[in-house]
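Hypothesis: this fold can be encoded by more than one sequence.
Test: take the structure tokens below, design a sequence, compare later.
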């Protein structure tokens, strides 16, 4: 982990200070877990819940709260399984592509 990664994680912890411990854990899990090219965590809720020692229903309920708070966004759906990523705006990423004049 680089110094920049550590700083980003500390900033993320600071930004989530008003959330419950479980909500913060879900946010950090999605921020630190390996992702695909779009930033989506391609893991089921059951596996993620097991990873952090949470009951699956508690994890799903907490993730729903985090989604409603605007921290996670759905990226894709395969069958009935939804995949999520941290909202890039929450990480301070510039998500607007500037327009340029056609020549």
């Amino acid at each position: 982990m680089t110094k920049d990664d550590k700083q980003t994680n500390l900033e993320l912890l600071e930004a989530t200070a008003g959330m419950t411990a479980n909500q913060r854990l879900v946010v950090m899990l999605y921020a630190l877990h390996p992702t695909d090219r779009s930033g989506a965590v391609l893991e089921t809720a059951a596996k993620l819940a097991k990873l952090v020692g949470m009951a699956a229903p508690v994890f799903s309920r907490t993730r729903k709260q985090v989604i409603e708070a605007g921290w996670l966004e759905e990226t894709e759906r395969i069958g009935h399984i939804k995949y999520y990523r941290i909202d890039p705006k929450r990480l301070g990423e510039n998500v607007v592509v500037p327009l340029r004049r056609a020549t």
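The helical segments are 3-15, 21-32, 45-51, 56-68. The chain is about 45% helix and 15% strand.
Hypothesis status: open.
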